[in-house]
Design a protein that fits this description.
By secondary structure, this protein is mainly α. It is 69% helix and 0% strand. Helix 8 runs antiparallel to helix 9 and helix 11 packs across helix 12.
């Protein structure tokens, strides 16, 4: 039997003469570049906003007691009045936009260019206020909003779905914010790529990521927190490493559960205050965050990048209460309802846990336990262990610690699952409550039994 090979000339002629695939590629690449540039601009604005806050706090020590509640109240008022879709992290919004319950016409409640711009400005405003927040979760919503807008420019009968654009934008946001492209891909797989028919594709992408990890191990990668120098770890790290994983799992699970309960609302007096007077509640939380910052010498304000990098470089000047205070400050910041991410503060808390365990056990390789704490706490909070360990590995060039970081993240995430439901899935359900109720649920049709009409 003769085999019929495809005519390469016909295939080439078809590829060169069919304009739709080329137009689709061009649009997607242009918007991908725009998303990356937008996140880069967001990073620049956020860093300058927080630097301005630091200069003011250094000049007038009492200024945060006035400035933080006032600006936080303004941000929450603007968010609730005009931009309800930007409150909180931004990751649940992208997941809600991709959810099967969300009609295509309602995705604008969660992602759009308008919301992306508002997220950018209001999150930077939160850092100008000195709140304990990160910009990585917001970067996901910002980049997804930019990429989602590409659908308006794609040619008809293209093969790119809205879900694909949202997922690519979300992954690009994480990758651009952390400078961790592999972490961005894994985040898309673990958190955003939920549909069952794509599981086989996700497996193939996971294999590609693993191959990429080998390449990064050989050639290295640019790092955000510098390069940690850790000699070959032996069995001596087992005890301290397990202790770090245990503490991160317990505290990370507690942190996730606190966020879910706080943001979903309850019957306690503070939740009632938040429902009745959300702006005043936010100002009250910000005042407490300001006081915590003053007590900690300013260490708990902002995202925590400087403190995390300092710990990795051997700085031991932080208070023994830093980890607990940063935990509380980040929780209260999120509870205010401002646009705010938790990735960077979670890394800071995890770094503090690793440093505290190193001091407690006397383990010599302190940076190794700090890196394990970063991966463990982030994995426990997000319950996305592969994303957590890859992000930390890329941020500190910790290829020599791949197995240790992965093990710590998996153990901490497993412990967290015993304490809390998955954070972003739970907050996505809260976001889905914003969808308009079906007409049949709002007003029964005339003549139906529920309407009371004949």
């Amino acid at each position: 039997m003769m085999l019929h090979h495809p005519d390469w000339r016909a295939r080439l002629r078809e590829e060169l003469t069919e304009w739709r695939p080329w137009a689709t590629r061009a649009v997607v690449l242009v918007f991908a570049a725009a998303a990356g540039l937008t996140v880069a601009g967001f990073t620049w604005l956020s860093e300058h906003a927080y630097a301005l806050f630091e200069r003011g706090a250094a000049a007038w020590w009492w200024a945060p007691l006035l400035w933080m509640p006032a600006l936080t109240a303004l941000i929450v008022w603007l968010t609730r009045r005009w931009f309800a879709g930007v409150a909180g992290s931004g990751i649940p919004q992208v997941m809600a936009a991709m959810d099967e319950q969300t009609p295509a016409a309602q995705r604008g409640l969660f992602v759009s260019l308008r919301l992306a711009f508002a997220k950018l400005m209001l999150t930077a405003g939160g850092l100008l206020a000195g709140l304990s927040l990160g910009r990585e979760g917001p970067s996901v919503q910002i980049a997804a909003g930019v990429m989602h807008h590409a659908r308006r420019w794609l040619p008809e009968r293209n093969t790119i779905s809205e879900h694909g654009l949202l997922m690519a934008g979300g992954a690009a946001g994480i990758a651009a914010a952390f400078n961790t492209p592999l972490g961005g891909v894994m985040f898309a797989i673990e958190e955003l790529w939920r549909r069952s028919e794509q599981r086989s594709s996700a497996l193939l992408i996971a294999a590609i990521v693993l191959a990429g990890l080998m390449s990064v191990s050989v050639y290295g990668n640019n790092t955000y927190f510098g390069v940690i120098r850790v000699p070959t770890l032996g069995w001596s790290v087992l005890g301290p490493g397990l202790l770090v994983a245990l503490v991160c799992g317990l505290t990370g699970g507690l942190f996730a559960r606190l966020l879910i309960v706080s943001l979903a609302g309850g019957v306690d007096v503070f939740s009632r205050w938040r429902r009745v007077a959300p702006v005043r509640f936010a100002a009250g939380c910000a005042l407490v965050v300001a006081v915590i910052g003053l007590v900690s010498g300013g260490a708990t304000w902002g995202s925590g990048y400087a403190q995390t990098r300092g710990l990795l470089e051997g700085d031991t000047g932080l208070s023994v209460f830093y980890t607990a205070l940063k935990f509380i400050a980040t929780w209260l910041t999120t509870w205010t309802g401002v646009p705010a991410g938790i990735f960077a503060p979670s890394l800071a808390i995890g770094a503090g846990i690793g440093s505290d365990v190193a001091a407690l056990t006397g383990f010599a390789e302190r940076p190794a336990l700090i890196a394990l704490g970063m991966a463990g706490f982030l994995a426990a909070v997000t319950q996305a262990p592969l994303t957590a360990f890859i992000i930390v590995m890329e941020m500190v060039a910790g290829q020599s610690m791949v197995l240790s970081l992965m093990a710590c993240a998996l153990v901490a995430s497993g412990i967290s699952r015993l304490i809390s439901a998955p954070l972003y899935a739970a907050l996505t359900r809260v976001q889905l409550l914003r969808l308009p109720a079906p007409v049949a649920d709002v007003a029964p049709q005339k003549g139906s039994p529920a309407s009371g009409a004949p």
